[in-house]
Amino acid sequence: MQTFLGIITLALITSSISPAVSAPAAPSGERFPGWLLKQNLDYHGSVEVKATTKGCRIITKDIALFLRPHQDVLMFNDTNKTMAKINKTVWLNSQSGNCKTLPCSAEIIKDFQLPQSGTRKIAGLNCKQNWAVVYKPNKTVSFFWEYWTTNEIKLPPDVINDYRVILNLPSGDGLPLAARKMFGRHRWTAVIVTEKAEPTMVAAKDLIPPTGYRQVENEMDVILGAQDKDEMDKILGRQDDKLSKVLKGNGVGYGNKRH
Q1: pTM of this prediction?
Q2: pLDDT greater at residue 230 or residue 22
């Protein structure tokens, strides 16, 4: 998968960041009915999802992401205690890259002889099979998605859609519990595997931004920490200066530096 869930690839995305993050206090001990998912995502390893009708929190080893109904995305790092608020529209638009993903029509399914399985159970939940096709910028087929969604986990529609977009799946109903890419008749790559899905009570504190975290400007600062990023910028700046001198010495103009 080329993004995300991009939680790590978020470091490569430029988004609009709001200047402040509000963190309303949660009533002590308040809990909401929800779901706990344990998923494995290619490139990102084990991911824990705590989901309720108020939104969902996606957690990797250090980085956490909040998807909330009709609100911007919150990203924070428990290790370096940093947090950023990300413009959801800009961020979601950046997830698809240069390729276009569309649901497969009955004609495409027939023409490419995509196997039909109907329904199955994943982690004890009823799921239905879906197919999507990913087109390259030149409009040729790159690969197919086979993915399985469930409607037994009730979440706000826009939160489900956000999660699907993060995973590079088409928008629609149903939370994805499994997905794999098909590059050819016998070439499959598993991308999403749900190992566990169970109802649980989610603490209110797990659904709001943490307090006492330093607000930073963007995703790179959250992942690396502002000090590490500053050091990286200095290194890149020195490399640009060296390259500029070499190019100018060879009679080649060199303009803008990286930012």
Answers
A1: 0.70
A2: 230
